[in-house]
Amino acid sequence: MSTLSPIRVLVVDDHEMVRRGIVSYLETEEDIVVVGEAADGLQAISLCETLHPDVVLMDLIMEKMDGITATKAIKAKLPETQIIILTSFVDEKLIFPALEAGALSYLLKTTTAAEIVQAIRAARESQSIIAPKVASRMVSRIQSAPSSRLPHEDLTPRELEVLRLIGEGLTNQEIADRLFIGVKTVKTHVSNILDKLGVADRTQAAVYAHRHNLV
Questions:
Q1: Mean pLDDT value across the chain
Q2: What is the DSSP pairing of strand 82-87 with strand 55-58?
Q3: Are β-strands 55-58 and 7-12 bridged in parallel, bridged antiparallel, or unpaired?
Q4: SS3 state at 15
Q5: Domains of the chain, with CATH numbers?
Q6: Can you give the pLDDT at residue 147?
């Protein structure tokens, strides 16, 4: 038999019927004790300061103070308290700020009661659980995020050679002679380089080359 003390849970939701439903189910679990209920973020912060729950089930959209603001405040004062977001919203504008504020898990209100209990038990071990729909949205956001590649990484090998020679101060004719290509071809490469680097002229291109140790 487990010797661990019961997991102390605070339930935060602005709908009383939702809170009562969650609390009623949690009270059937021997290893979980509901220490309090809050109807908004301000109440949640106040109760956390006095009750020191192990886990907070946190709604997001509430009057007086939203769940993200409350999560950030609670984690600042009680870093050991784990926050599980329980909301109806699958919205990137809520998901990422909630997790950045310190929430451990993000569940939807379509989650079963048993899955909520599983997340609470996982939270005791600092293990995160993210609802599948939320995880899919997070993956899509990450995959569609702008590349962190540097501009010169998009240059072709020949363009990179030309950029290095620009950095050395060579003229178009000198670059053409060095690479055994025509001056017109060099001009085309220079134009492409300026465009890809987002710089206005050869001088800025040369500065870029030196700044990124390409010369």
A1: 91
A2: parallel
A3: parallel
A4: coil
A5: 7-143 (3.40.50.2300), 151-211 (1.10.10.10)
A6: 61
Token duo for residue 119: 């997340």
User: What's the rounded Cα separation, in Å, for the pair 10 and 52?
Assistant: 9
In 22-165, where do the E strands start and end? 32-38, 55-58, 82-87, 105-108
C-alpha span between 8 and 56 (Å, rounded): 9
Structure tokens at 3: 């010797």
Closest CA to 55 of 93, 107, 20, 15: 107
What burial class does residue 71 get, using C-beta atoms within 10 Å of its C-beta: 0-12 exposed, 13-18 middle, 19+ buried? buried
Tell me the sheet residues that pair with 84.
57, 105
What pLDDT was estimated at residue 3? 66
Two tokens at 132?
A: 């599948």
11-to-95, 115, 126 alpha-carbon distances in Å: 19, 15, 18
Q: Chain-centre distance of CA 148, in angstroms?
A: 15
CA distance 80 to 126: 9
User: How far is 209 from 170, CA to CA, in rounded Å?
Assistant: 13
- Decide: 45 and 73 in contact? Cβ < 8 Å: yes
